[in-house]
Amino acid sequence: MHAPAVRLAGVWKWYSGQQRPAVRDVWLEVRVGELLAILGPSGCGKTTTLRLIAGLERPDAGSIEIAGALVAGSDRFIPPEGRGTGLVFQDYALFPHLTVEENIAFGLFRLSRAERRQRVEELLRLTGLEPYRDRYPHQLSGGQQQRVAIARALAPRPSVLLLDEPFANLDAELRQRMREELRRLLRELGVTVVLVTHDRDEALSLADRVAVMLEGAILQVDTPERVYHEPKTREVARLLGQANFVPARVVGAVGRSDLGLFALEEGRNTAVEQVELLIRPRDVVLEPHSDGLGVVVDRRFVGAEVVYRVLLRCGITLETSQPPSVELAIGDRVEVRCNRARLAAFAGSERIGLAALLERVHRSAADSVRSSGPRDEAPAVSEAD
Amino acid sequence: MRVRVSGPALEQPVVVRRQWRAPALDELVAIVIALIALGPLAYLVWRSWQGSENALAALQHPRTVTLLLRSLGLAAAVAGTSVLLALPLAWLTERVAVPGRRALAILFALPMAVPSYLMAYAVVATLGPRGALAELTGRVLGIERLPEIYGFFGAWLTLTLVTYPYVYLAVRASLRGIDPSFEDAARLLGRGRLATFWSITVPLLRPGLVSGMLLVALYVLSDFGAIAILRYPTLTYSIYNQYRLSFDRAAAAGLALLLVACTSLLVLGERQWRRRAAFFRTAGSSRPAPRARPSVWAWGLAGFGLLISGVALGLPAGVALYWWLRARRLGEVLPGVSESFVHSLGISLAAAIVTVALAFPVARAIVRGASRLTRLLDLPLWIAYSLPGIVLALALVSLSAQFLPILYQTLPLLLLGYALRFLPEAVGTVRAVLVQQSPRWEEAARTLGLRPWQAWFRIQLPLALPGALSAVLLVFLTTVKELPVTLLLSPIGFMTLATMIWNATADAYWSHAALPTLLLLGTGVIPMAFLSWWEERSVRRGREG
């Protein structure tokens, strides 16, 4: 078993003159070779966490290990130059008085001239910066600057690469392209990466695992799929995107909601009578139906899809994204079907388990035995437990 | 993998002691330098405490009130006139497309390179009783008496001519910083050109106007040379006399404290006002304001500006040239200047280098240090800033005579005097350079394996070098023309251009001051012109880039 690439144990950090800790009791392990994204709103302490790992900040409590070696904690503090981490700053921090080549070679001063030359060439080739080697940072575009920053950080072969909001300074189109490029590059090299971002799409699409951070604390660390669909708390659910909570009544092991009947998996907490199901905008399909339980109250065209707001019988307004083929008008009655087998069920602010849908939308009594249509993509009903 | 989500750690808070971090070595250096800057003031307080009877007697003397009112009145008059001169000239060079705009912009600022005592010499040697104009008019027209130049009128005229550029530069910078869309918005809301100027532009210029006026007021309150030559007794002059004429220095110290109280109140007041008016600050606009086509008025204004700066620069040069040629014609033997010239250049260069070297750790600590440290360094700096040269010199002379006789009357003490006098200015310049350096650069160098001092040498120093050089040049230019510190702290027999001019004017040997004046003007004005040209260019570049 490898030692983890980075290990934070009970790390706290206060900035002077501030009431709340910037980082509170963070426990985190980054596995060798993985790309871990720390996701959170601005000011949640994610950049501080990165700076703590890099050694640019000193933790007030707790310990930090890099590749099994203690670098901070119990009266020990290795300064940044002794840690072997590579950091790509949000504003890139390219040295303005050095060329692209000199910037990349900056951390290679321990190598011989020939080795240095070779390593710089390798990185120039890898990042496609060969034509720009003699340029100064201000002569480069944003995307090129970012590539230089990454090349410079990778040059000394760091044991872990830290990326601080790497795409924040790029415009939307370029961001998409650079994200793809970076993903390819990092996979190719197999480096361990910790990436900090407030952009959930970025975190979900790039990361092997996502650590969700709020107010200095890490709330959940999981695969992108799980943090999205099975968040541990309501805050996590909200941080990862539009979240609708549909109330349901539970009797025994079976619950009833406007989305249909369901069974509580892992339903340990049988005392709970009221739960709420987490519905993401794309988790439901809308179909016009005169007896439907929902009424379209708002329609917003956003290009690739249409966002409908649907008022349910229970009083909740559901925000859903539908493909353009779904054409509804405000005031239309719709049937709301769920296209996911399992939904996260919440009681209070915590997730208590998963709910497996047993039956789709409950309509009027006369219709309740209607079989599902062929276009229905709802997955097979799975039994509870 | 282990992740503890909230959980017990929050309910049983870990006892975390935030440790007091001892200041690092470079921060300690900064603190020591700042403390030395407090030395002169501390001495003055101690000295007047020791001789409190005499100090109180001097302060309670009815004449003191007159002196104080004269100082304040002159400062107010000069500051007010400077605004009247500077505001239209700044507007002209920033907002009107007058031909030769850039050259005019530099020319209008150049009079600040002329030291006040030199201007006073020029005024007296022209308009004074035995001056050039009197001689001419006497010979040609038979008029022997000209209007009285000594007193308030001469002091006001002289000081206005050399200080209006401070307001002019501050207003220009503010004008450049105003986002033109404010004015556009006012025009779109139906205000005319003039109404927009009064209701939008002037309020936005207020911070620049106030800080320019503060500079002028401080200059006038601390000025010694011009006031002495023009025989308008104010506080500074009487401090000098007290020190010269009486054996007891407590009286001088008491008056000096009164003057420091005035200047520091001004500085403090401006800071307080600026803090309240923070919303006036406008972001540097990327879009330059459009420049109007020059009207008749603009041409008139340009002519007026040319006249003012022409008089301010031409009068000293012309007068010096006149007296020099006259001396040559009459076969007068003039004292040699080469030794004083070398002294002036050498001591000023040394002072500039020492001052900027001292300013570096202080500026660095202010820019990078914790906020507590920044606040700590702030106080001694603004006290040093509001300490008039004559007061500083007086304190250092007495201090060294009493406690450090090894230093008394030596060049190192003179250097220390210069360094303390111009430290705030140098810190300001170096700080502006260091602020532009992203702290990320240093951090990036650290994560790439460099130790702090290596990062400093490879990143910060090379990037700060051009700025540090211009700071050295700036301090050099102000030191060359400095008078009171030079006068009081120079070792006996150590003559500079400034002291030569002072001695010659004191005895009304106008011709003896001629050559030093020409040299001093040359060393002051020419590099200043280059420096402003350079700055002008970089501002323009920054805007286009």
Describe the structure.
The complex is a heterodimer of chains A (385) and B (545). In chain A, helix 3 (113-127) crosses helix 4. Chain A has helices spanning 46-54, 100-105, 113-127, 142-154, 172-189, 200-206, 224-229, 234-239, and strands spanning 6-13, 23-30, 35-39, 61-66, 69-73, 76-77, 85-88, 160-164, 193-197, 209-214, 217-222, 244-251, 254-257, 260-264, 274-279, 284-288, 294-301, 306-311, 317-322, 333-338, 342-347, 350-357. Residues 361-385 of chain A have low confidence and may be disordered. Chain A is an alpha+beta fold and 385 residues long. Chain A has two domains: 6-230, P-loop containing nucleotide triphosphate hydrolases (Rossmann fold); 242-367, Beta Barrel (OB fold (Dihydrolipoamide Acetyltransferase, E2P)), CATH 2.40.50. In chain A, a hairpin with a 2-residue loop joins strand 13 and strand 14 (260-264). With 545 residues, chain B is mainly α. Chain B has two domains: 49-282 and 296-328, MetI-like (MetI-like fold), CATH 1.10.3720.10; 333-506, MetI-like (MetI-like fold, Orthogonal Bundle), CATH 1.10.3720.10. In chain B, helix 4 crosses helix 14 (296-330) and helix 19 (439-447) runs antiparallel to helix 20. The model of chain B is unreliable at 1-17 (pLDDT under 50).
Quickly describe the structure.
The complex is a heterodimer of chains A (385) and B (545). Chain A is 21% helix and 33% strand.
Contiguous low-pLDDT stretches of chain B (5 residues minimum) are 1-17
Assembly type of the chains comes to heterodimer
CATH superfamily of the largest domain in chain A: P-loop containing nucleotide triphosphate hydrolases
Per CATH, the architecture of the largest domain in chain B is Orthogonal Bundle
- What fraction strand of chain B? under 5%
Query: Helical stretch count of chain B?
Result: 23
The major sheet of chain B is characterized as:
none
Order of helices and strands of chain B: HHHHHHHHHHHHHHHHHHHHHHH
> Averaging pLDDT over every residue of chain A, what do you get?
86
User: What coarse outline of chain B follows from CA principal-axis ratios?
Assistant: globular
Strand order of the largest sheet of chain A: 7-8-9-3-10-11
How many E-type strands of chain B? 0
Measure the end-to-end span of chain B. 50 Å
CATH class of the largest domain in chain B: Mainly Alpha
- CATH topology name of the largest domain in chain B, in short, is MetI-like fold
CATH topology of the largest domain in chain A: Rossmann fold
